[in-house]
Amino acid sequence: MPENTILSVRNIVKTYPGVIAINHFSMDVREGEVHALIGENGAGKSTLIKTLSGAITPDEGTVCVCGKEFASMTPKLAKEQGIEVIYQEFTLVPGISAAENVFLGEKTKPGLFVDIKEREKRARELFERLNVDIDVSKPVKNLSPAHQQLVEIAKAVSKQVKILIMDEPTAPLTVSEVETLFRIIKDLKSQGVTVIYISHRLEELFEIADRVTVMRDGC
Ligand SMILES: Nc1ncnc2c1ncn2[C@@H]1O[C@H](COP(=O)(O)OP(=O)(O)OP(=O)(O)O)[C@@H](O)[C@H]1O
Ligand SMILES: [Mg+2]
After folding, report:
1. Does residue 180 fall inside a structural domain?
2. Which residues span the domain enclosing 60?
3. Which of 108, 192, 205, 211 is surrounded by the most beta carbons within 10 Å?
């Protein structure tokens, strides 16, 4: 295992009744790289990242993050290790603002009005870091899918993300939005963030990925 391995997945198995979703799968991810995970529909990509985020528990195998070994992740453990996932299905709360979504789950301070203004200011700073212009006070349901995705990214970045996992991030995007996303991924990489990028569009990989893992039938 190379010294700069930030994440090492070893012999993960996950079965559902009648299906082996992941079948003794192993992979190493190096610190600061963009690592693409590709494979056909049903190959096991989403199931694998759910084991990394703690959303599901594998039947067998281990996950090693920054040298610490875990038999299974929990959502809390994964967050403590700096793992953030942007799922295929967005998980934002549609009726509240972008700023509130970014800091959802943070404890509120007394004086709600001040608090909202303060969150909007911090959210604006995050979007400035991503170099995108978004009205942070708008409910996210009024934002385009691309802007909603940027809210998800800002949310991950606000949590000091070390390993950002994106599941098919380009699926809802137009060509120019994909360019913006790629620019942001490259910026995050230059800031030391490791990215695991799931896709089944081969042509994207040549532009964005440093290394590629191919998944087939859970292997
Ligand atoms: N909760 C579940 N219950 C039963 N079977 C499941 C469950 N989740 C996934 N599977 C099965 O596990 C296999 C892997 O699914 P998974 O969603 O991980 O594939 P994927 O590579 O993400 O596919 P896609 O490219 O379509 O997103 C598939 O056969 C799927 O039907
Ligand atoms: Mg999937």
Report:
1. no
2. 1-82+194-219
3. 205
